[in-house]
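DM from R.C. (forwarded with permission)

"hey, sorry to bug you on a friday — could you get me a structure for this? deadline for the figure draft is monday and I only need the backbone to look sensible"
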Amino acid sequence: MSKEAFMKKLERSLVKLPVAERQDILEDFHEHFHVGMQEGKDEAEISAALGSPNQIAKELLATYYLDRVGEESNVGNVFRAVWAVIGLGFFNLVVVLGPFIAVLGCIVGGWAVGVAFIVSPILVLLNVIIYPDTFRLFELFASIGLTGLGLFISIGMFYATRFIVKLFIRYLSYNAKLVKGGLKHA
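My reply, with the result:
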C-alpha cells in the first residue's frame, strides 16, 4: 500500500479524535515513512510493517478514550471506552461486554433498592390516600425504617460505584494492553 493510501485510510479511521490529536498522530506516521525511506525501504514495505491502518486507528481510539476516562470518569466517557476496547477484537465482545453488563446490573440494582427504600413512606402515604381503610401504623414505621436503610444503601452505593468504575477502567486498560500485545514481563 502506498504512503498516500495508508495515510488517507488512517485519517478516515481517526475522524472521531479531536483535530489536534489526529494531526499529531498523522505527523508521527509521516515521520515513520520518512525514516523508513531513509533506511532504503519502499512505501509498501513500510506500510506492511506498520500494519493495518484500521487496526492502528482502533488501538489509538481505545487508548485515547481510556486516557479520557482516566481524567474524567463520567458515564459517557466510560461507555466510549468500553465500546472502543470492544472494537479491538471479537474476543473482547465476550471478555469486556459480559463483565460490563454484570457490573452495570449490580450498580443499577443497588441504586434501585436504595431509592425504593427512600421513597417507601411516600408510597405508604399514597396507599393511605387511595385506600384510607387500609392504614396500619406498622406500615408507616416500617417504611420510615426502610428510608433510613435506603439512605445507608445509597451512601454505600455512591462509594461502591466510584470504586467499581475505577476498577473496571483498570480492567479495560489491562485488556486493551493485552489485546495490543503491550504487556511486558517485569
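R.C.: lifesaver. The CA atoms of residues 85 and 172 lie 7 Å apart.
me: no worries. Residues 75-180 form one domain.
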